[in-house]
User: Fold 3'-5' ssDNA/RNA exonuclease TatD from Candidatus Erwinia haradaeae.
Amino acid sequence: MFDIGVNLTSKKFLQDRSKVVQRARAVGVTGMVIIGSTLLDSRQAIVLAKEDVDYFFCTIGVHPHYAHTWSQAVLVELHKLREEPSVVAIGECGLDFHRSFSTEKEQIYAFQSQIELAVEFCLPIFLHCRNAHKCFMSILKPWLPQLQAVLLHCFTGTQAELESYLEYDISIGITGWVCDEQRGRELRKLISLIPAKRLLIETDAPWLLPKSLDPMPTSRRNEPCFLPHIINTIAVLRGEDMTELAKTTTLNARKFFHII
Ligand SMILES: [Zn+2]
Assistant:
């Protein structure tokens, strides 16, 4: 099992990060991608990844929430960070018009710049899109032929949105959102429409604690050790064998991020 999206630099993991990783290893998580959401965060992700170069990989980039921090200086720094062997993708970047912590203009600018960066570096791109599908696709589409590999992480959209991603061979990241019978109702119906080769699985920990965990952790914090629970839920919804699905999605992750 491979967790393609963990916010391991989060303050929520400050006290017990090594235990969190230990627990993930104990349940069979064989590797993870640490998400960079700001420049500082990307630097921290690289530092953490050095603790075990065969287990941790990371993305570098600026999340749409922090698009207001994007600048020429950030771009210069990202150029330097790219040299680090643990860096496997640009992102998390994209658009989030649901919670506009940065203006739409700032988000669009930072998104475009990071797409250009992914093309320049020949790296996969790790994308976030919420309540912005139309604008998101209109920016992304012209670049698709030049982008090496594209991942829409934490997909929670509509069938039409899913179909438009699949039409362009965009890989789809599924989180524990799928374990929520209410909020995830739409996603649960769509999960079988994703071709196996396009499916990637992530916890997005510490966020998005799977609603169906039993018992629920008292901390209410999500952890990569809950990845098997998410995979199991997806396997049941797709009518597939969990072990096979774990194998397939691990291979997908390694192939997508070029991790041998
Ligand atoms: Zn996201």
Summary: The mean pLDDT is 97. DSSP finds nine helices and eight strands in the chain. The longest helix spans residues 104-121.
